[in-house]
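Worked example (supplementary).
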Amino acid sequence: MSEPLLSVYGLKTNFDTRHGLLRAVDDVSFSLDRGEILGLVGESGSGKSVTGFSLLGLIEAPGRIAGGSIRFDGQELVGASIDILRSIRGRRIAMIFQDPAMTLNPVLTIRQQMKLAYDAHQSGNTGDFTARALEVLSKVGIPDPAARIDAYPHQFSGGMRQRVAIAIALMHRPDIIIADEPTTALDVSIQAQILAEMRGLAQETGTALIWISHDLATIAALANRIAVMYAGRIVEQGTTAALIRAPRHPYTQGLLNSRPDRFPPKAKLPQIRGAMPSLSNLPQGCAFAPRCQFATDLCRSAIPPWSGTLHDGFACYHPLERTP
Amino acid sequence: MVSFIVQRIAQGIVVMAAMSLLVFLGVYAIGNPIDVLLAPDATQEIRTQTIARYGLDRPLYEQYGQFVWRVLHGDLGRSFVFNMPVTDLIFMRLPATLELTLAAVLGATVIGIPLGIYAGYRPQSRTARWIMAISVIGFSVPTFWIGLVLILTFAVTLGWLPAGGRGETANLFGIEWSFLTGNGLKHLLLPALNLSLFKLALMIRLARAGTREIMLTDTVRFARATGQSETTIIRHHVLRLISIPLVTVFGLELGSTLAFAVVTETIFSWPGVGKLIIDSIQSLDRPVMVAYLVLVSLLFIAINFVVDLCYVALDPRMQKG
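After joint prediction of all chains, the assembly is encoded as:
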């Protein structure tokens, strides 16, 4: 088997705060193949966004990548120089964010912003900027791009703004797009449209996607593979079909059980009792143990090791049985 | 856009009308100019004649009406003390104040904004701490004291720069300017420095606060994620996004310094309008005071108008409203 496009081993990202050292991402490992869609799911504060930012070296003080390895297309990104990282950002690995109203610069036209992103990478640019800009804008479904390119972000709706951000991400034909909850701030109907379009675009261009979301249902509809994060760690990973049908980790099971579409109307929804512990106050052993019905003394004293591969596996002493 | 301009001009006219009334009443309340105009031993006949000549025997509303009428015809009256048209008097002094103010405010802006952006970009660095120390001094030490220290240091002790006056001037567009001659520049340096310190501190703080705020936004993160360099981010994103408060303060400071550079002008015997207004208050030279204050209001309205136009140019979101 050829080397995957992106392999992450034992990634650790810490934040040195007044409340002590926060391990926002702790020993995270996964891999991504060309054209694959990986869903990274977890509650707020589980470290999924920090994982995304770490891949691009976009962690700012007081945070820092404290260990591990990120190999992208044969190149090590942990500890790489800012010039190397910058040559990868936007050109090889692009990123889109949660709220397009906050990410686009309100005082620059779409053309100006696209030009800045375009000019960030001189090499590899063949042909005309305007032509390329209009091409990606129409690819993401902006009607009449030639007229709209000189508009300002506030003249677009939320969904259109996110499409513009996606167009900017597509401009240099990246190998990977990291999407950090890009549909959370949008209406449900627009969400569905953008999801469908992103899947189409990824297939068409061969771009791999890392889709970060707290919404397992969204991810299940989009991703080939899912990694579930809890308190800075990946607790389970596997193909979407297997993970949805037969989860191994009790937390994944809990997330699946909380989906409202599985229950009749007006029935009481089961929930995972308790709340995710704060990163500054993690329990010893498995972070999920206090909320887990299967937890034993072993769970409360030692962090469960990963059983499986970079593609598939779980971290639990008492995995759920895989029913045939 | 046109309606915006028309609306602003209409507002300006209302403000001017209100200001002229306030100024007229205020000056009327502070004393009888006849005591200044005439020698104490003047006869009753001369007194009556003078009072009639200046229209001081008319009711207040009539005096105000006449004043407004004359102003509308470009006549702001004659100075009691200098016995020459007030407009000539003010415009004779204005270039001196104008060049001093522009030197101070522009200097403070051009130096203060980059320093402030740096301090906001690297808030933990040693340089940033020094920059902030300078801004605290600029804020807290009174202008007159810094002026005196500057004179004592550079004029008295070191003898590098002159202590006062405008020095040699050169003619441009029929007006005498100091900044066009080497000697005049030397004279301009200390008062401009003195006047600019507070504004420098202000610009540093504004630019720093704005930069710190913008650097944490997703706009900057997104720009970084597209591979843009830090220089590009500062130049194209941060500078544009922090410019609105900077333009506001620039306008306010320009106006207030033009109008009230009194302290610095007095310390450095700079023959500008600030000294003129102080002298006219002391001698109860009513036409000068009134005309000066009316011109200052006009100046503020004009500057605010330009600032508003800059807002629209800088932030497209304002074009609708």
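Two points are worth noting when inspecting this output. The mean pLDDT of chain A is 88. The interface with chain B takes residues 53, 56, 58, 61, 86-91, 94-99, 102-109, 112, 116-117, 119-121, 152, 154, 165, 168-169 of chain A (CB under 8 Å).
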